[in-house]
Amino acid sequence: MAQTDLTELLNRAQGGDASAREAAFAQIYADLKRIAAAELRRNPGATLNTTALVHEAYAKLAAHHAGALASRAHFFSLAARAMRQILVDQARSRLADKRGGREAHTGLDGAHEIADRRAEELLLVDEALDRLAEHDERAAKVVEWHFFGGFTFGEIAAELDLSERTVRSDWALARAVLARELGLGDAVLAGSGAGLRNA
User: Fold this and answer.
1) By three-state DSSP, how is residue 36 classified?
2) Residue 72: is it exposed, middle or buried by C-beta count within 10 angstroms (0-12/13-18/19+)?
3) Cβ atoms within 10 Å, residue 107
4) pLDDT single digits (tens) 17-34
5) Residue 73: which of 156, 172, 132 has the closest Cα?
6) Which of 85, 78, 77 is nearest to 127 (CA)?
7) How far apart are CA 110 and CA 117, in angstroms?
8) Beta-carbon neighbour count of residue 35 at 10 Å?
9) DSSP code of residue 107
10) Where are the domains of the chain?
């Protein structure tokens, strides 16, 4: 099915068309699972599995997004943001539980320490990315699409009507800003998704 057909399905689904919602979800499910799997690999403390994250993100979009979708890329950028918000909320909850003493760790449970550290890093990156967006919205969008959404640099360039060189430059700038602010930007942003298409 062509990209315009998917956009039409998504917009009909948003208008309450249940059959269009099912058809759109079936068409984008594999891509959403790739985004979710990449997110969960970077966030070992998350309590959702891939399928649950996909369904929660899709439900979040259906419940809260208003306005027509301009393109397939527009949808996936919103999906990436929804997953980012879900995982950030989980990280906050995890750290609140830790501070409140509700999560008991054992001496053998090094995985909990790693998960706690990743939760802290995710919150720091999320906050730094919001600050970056205030000064350079495009660079922040490149980070969100590439790191949180799994878009390749070529895909981002095509969707934003930019050269791939410009997109890579934005990515390098964002990494440098985050590294300077956090002292861990390069390490946290080292991973990225495999892209949403095979182009």
Assistant:
1) helix
2) buried
3) 5
4) 888 878 888 888 888 887
5) 156
6) 85
7) 11
8) 26
9) T
10) 3-188
Asked if 13 contacts 24 with a C-beta cutoff of 8 angstroms, the reply is: yes
Q: Which of 40, 63, 67, 68 is nearest to 52 (CA)?
A: 40
C-alpha to C-alpha distance for 117 and 70, rounded to whole angstroms: 37
Nearest CA-CA partner of 114 in 134, 128, 94: 94
Q: pLDDT for 41-84, tens place per residue?
A: 766 666 778 888 888 888 887 766 767 777 777 777 788 788 88
Alpha helices by DSSP H, 65-190: 72-99, 110-135, 137-143, 153-160, 164-182, 185-188
Sign for the CA dihedral angle at 120, 126, 128, 131 comes to: negative
Q: Which positions ≥6 away from 11 have C-beta within 8 Å?
A: 68, 69
